[in-house]
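Agenda item 2: pyridoxal-5'-phosphate complex prediction
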Amino acid sequence: MNKSQQRIYEQMGISPQVYAFCENIWDSLKDRWQEIDALSEYNQLKVIGAMQKNRVSEACLLGTTGYGYNDLGRESLERVYADVFHTQDALVRPQITCGTHALALALMSNLRPGDELLSPVGKPYDTLEEVIGIRPSRGSLAEYGITYRQVDLLPDGSFDYENIRKAVTEKTRLVTIQRSRGYQTRPTLSVNRLEELIAFVKGIKPDVICMVDNCYGEFTETLEPSDVGADLVVGSLIKNPGGGLAPIGGYLAGKRECIENAACRLTSPGLGREVGASLNALGAFYQGLFLAPSVTANALRSAIFAANIYERLGFSVTPGSEESRHDIIQAVTFGTPQGVIAFCEGIQQAAPVDGYVTPEPWDMPGYDSPVIMAAGAFVSGSSIELSADGPIREPYAVYFQGGLTWQHGKFGIMKTVQKLVEKGVILKDFGKQNL
Ligand SMILES: *Cc1c(COP(=O)(O)O)cnc(C)c1O
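Presented output:
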């Protein structure tokens, strides 16, 4: 064990015992780190290749103002995204305010009154309930006469093919598939499983639009959903593809027709993609995308480390310590509010920004129980940065994600263990018991 390393951790509030316990586990994960290095290496070249192919130049990093006609950097960035995702086209804009907006834009622009939307993988992400109108809401798809159907996954997590077949009708225009588990108990869908599902749906109705909510999934595999038949992939730039640098934004990549529809909804019919000044965002969009494969890899390392630490400490973790990864989310179930709170305090205390504050559970709008959130982010609300949150209700699970550097992720997890020891949630002699 490296003494000076241990000393700096001690200065940062990590006891020798916690350090030794965590360091041992970190060292045992060498094979996983190799796998992740290979993944980020592949994706790094994919991104550089797309930038070179599109002749990204210094001039592309400068933005426009006003209407934003002839925005060279914006147009080339959209071609770069299209090449990274191997799609005909892409829309990548600072005017897309967040992931929910990007998804709402994709749905509202590609569905027309009388059409039906189908989710064959159960309930979509919370914020989409109001977009669709599952919970009545001003401006929802339901208000425009667009109906919604849902087929849940089977109890073992597999697709309910029989009921999906019945749910695809002559009205079905778009099928929305969420890749990440989000904050649910269902498993995250691998690109392989997405391929299977999309092929099945297309087998029933070839002209249906298959859209994938790609949030948290970008660069966690060498293939993206658009490589295996998705017509449209959608995500947020303050998650994986923004690489931690994008200060705002969302993207859609897919079939030209779908992207043109979205552009006309985002700006205006007739104007479409020709307007939309990029202001000063482009440098961060390009550099963020360049960093995204390695930043995503760092978040994956942090998640795998957390899974291994907490599994060893006897808590239930999803995904499991040895499972393959298809997004950057890690859930740990503590079974007590104290566990969730101590974990979030640890993450907060490891933050470079707002590291001195203590997070507390609060009644957030839209949630039925208090929620505690830890985030010390350079970009407000960014969840590619090290962050954690958990609702204070059964089963008292915390959801953890991000980490721009693995060093920060590793330190953050060590801090959570330290907090849990200090608060008596795990026993003082945990190391002896569990090693
Ligand atoms: C984060 C997320 C969204 C919504 O994105 P916001 O930027 O929070 O609006 C939608 N779907 C999934 C799966 C997500 O993880």
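Discussion summary: The pocket of pyridoxal-5'-phosphate is lined by residues 98-100, 103, 125, 127, 178, 180, 182, 213, 215-216, 236 (CB under 6 Å).
Owner for follow-up: CH.
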